[in-house]
UniProtKB/TrEMBL annotation:
Annotated Pfam families: ArsC
SUPFAM superfamilies for this protein: Thioredoxin-like
InterPro entries: Arsenate_reductase-like, Thioredoxin-like_sf, Tscrpt_reg_Spx/MgsR
Membership in a protein family: Belongs to the ArsC family.
Organism encoding this protein: Pedobacter punctiformis
Annotated protein name in UniProt: Spx/MgsR family RNA polymerase-binding regulatory protein
Amino acid sequence: MIVYGIPNCNTVKKALDWLKENKIEFEFHDFKKKGITADKLNAWCAVFGWETVLNRKGLTWKKLTKEEQAKIDNQDLAIAYLINNTSAIKRPVVEKNGHAILISFDEVNYTQTLL
C-alpha cells in the first residue's frame, strides 16, 4: 500500500496516525520531494473525478486569482496545474495493489475499506 501526500499536512498526519494505530503497513510517497506523474493523476481522476483530486479548499488554490481559477475547467488543465503545484492535490491518496482506493481522510471510510 502506498500513501501519497505531504508530511506537514494535518489530514495526511491523521491518516498516517490511523494506519500506524491499526498496524497497517504502508509506503509513504511525498509528492513535494518525489513529484507526481500525469499518468498517476489521470488514474486518480478516473477513480475520484478531477474535481475531487483538485483541492479547491487549500491555500495553494486560493492564491490563484478568480480568473486563473476559472481557466482550470477540465481534467487536462487540472493535471497540468497539479504537476507543477502538488500542494493543490487533495490528500492523502491511498493506493492498494496499484489502484487508488481512498482520497482525503475519513475514519469511517478507512475502517470500512482497510479493516
